[in-house]
Amino acid sequence: MSGLAQLLAHLGYRVMGSDRDADGPGRTVLMTQLKNIGISICEQDGEELRKQRPDAVIYSSAVESDNPDRKAASDLAIPEVPRAQALNDALNQVGGSQIAIAGSCGKTSVTGWVASALRELGQPVLMVCGGFAREFESGVLPGNFFSDEAPSWLVYEVDESDRSLTAFTPDYGMVLNIGTDHHERHELVQLFDAFLANCRVGAVTNANLATELASLSLTHQVCFADRVSSSHTTPVPGTVTPTGYTSAAEGITVSIADIGQIPTRQFGPHSAANAAAVLALLNILPGLPAQRTLAAALSAFRGVRQRFEVIGQAASGGWIYNDYAHNVEKIAAAVQTAQELGLGPVRILFQPHGYGPLGFMRDAFREALPDILGPGDDLVLLPVYYAGGTTSFSPTSAEVAADYAAAGLPVSAAPTREAAEASLFSSPGNDGVVLVLGARDPSLPVWCHELLAIGDG
């Protein structure tokens, strides 16, 4: 929502907004930056809305109809506009070709990566991203929105969780993957099919989905392989494939067929797949230089906050990393990345981002954990993040942890963050990796730095 607010302000609209917890931990810097570019922040009680009488109220799918601001809008007959529709309408006011990034996992990183690579190639861009991309951060902007003057390319991510990705009609689209998040697989296949059908010129898709997705008849359509040295029973011609990668402290170097080695500041095998996806997209965009120049442009990307972000090494020896992972596939990728560092056992502190999502992934996560966890690894479930609104408050993290422990898995629940801290640093010489996972809660990165300070103490 803050990225959309910045886009609207950039287009000349007067923008105000509210948040249930605008003064909460981790929000101060963002709220200050929004205010500094002229976006007003008000209490979420409907009063300011009644005073200002805006032309429209834009809401996300996380905001219920009985929210005080939405109720005020209804009482005053102010049009209520879903976020996706508002974003689509705003983008359509900007010249340039649109590139929409979709998929259950990786779309935020790939959105930032595509925008970064295009700028490195001298192309003016506009970007609206679900995370804070490092090269688009400044003292003024937080990094989830950026625009050059007269952008040629509009790069943005679209969301399947509320089915809103079908509201967009981009020139180029990308489907990275389909995972166990938000909806059953057959529903997701239908959603992504509808999204691809809306792409006007071309698309990039995961080669593993080539037989599952029906809308692969665009003139400019290519695939990428989502696994290193991936082989398919029915190879897709022209697939961009990562043939290998090597890990180092500063990131992985990806090898891609016909291109050579691409050093990056990203981590993990999923980043090798993301690099292949970005390159596949660049290959079908008109007016760009030769492939080796494209490969060099990929190396410049500095990454996105909370995507396997290095917090630091504590004096006790342990390393702390933070990742936005919140579904089975993303958690598996983050843990595998941590294991590949070879720094010792991985202790995973996972905060589920809602009771509904935890219930949805409960069985799939239990089934996947034996393959995700390595020797000495363990999982600690933190209390479910509750941002307000309607919920069943079930299942709890304690209930899920007990279920997993009964199945013989090294899983426990911490009733509070303080309890997790006490367990984490209860023994001297704690080493290995602490991997803090979870979405939506802006206080998690703050807590990661507090963990580092405790480890240093």
Walk me through the structure.
- It is built from 14 helices and 20 strands.
- The two termini are 37 Å apart.
- Helix 6 (107-120) crosses helix 8, helix 8 crosses helix 9 and helix 10 (328-340) packs across helix 11 (355-372).
- It is 34% helix and 20% strand.
- The protein is α/β, with parallel strands linked by helices and 457 residues long.
- A hairpin with a 3-residue loop joins strand 13 (251-256) and strand 14.
- It has three domains: 2-85, Rossmann fold (3-Layer(aba) Sandwich), CATH 3.40.50; 94-298, Mur-like, catalytic domain (UDP-N-acetylmuramoyl-L-alanine:D-glutamate ligase, 3-Layer(aba) Sandwich); 309-456, Protein-Tyrosine Phosphatase, Chain A (Alpha-Beta Complex), CATH 3.90.190.
- It is globular and about 55 Å long.
Q: Which key features would you list for this structure?
A:
Rossmann fold, alpha/beta, 20% strand, 457 residues, globular, 7-stranded mixed beta sheet, 3 domains, Protein-Tyrosine Phosphatase, Chain A, 6-stranded mixed beta sheet, UDP-N-acetylmuramoyl-L-alanine:D-glutamate ligase
Short recap of the structure:
The chain has helices spanning 2-10, 28-36, 47-52, 68-75, 83-91, 107-120, 185-198, 269-284, 291-298, 328-340, 355-372, 397-406, 417-424, 443-456, and strands at residues 16-18, 40-42, 57-59, 80-82, 97-102, 125-128, 145-147, 153-157, 172-175, 202-206, 220-224, 242-248, 251-256, 260-263, 309-313, 319-323, 346-351, 378-381, 411-413, 433-438. With 457 residues, the protein is α/β, with parallel strands linked by helices.
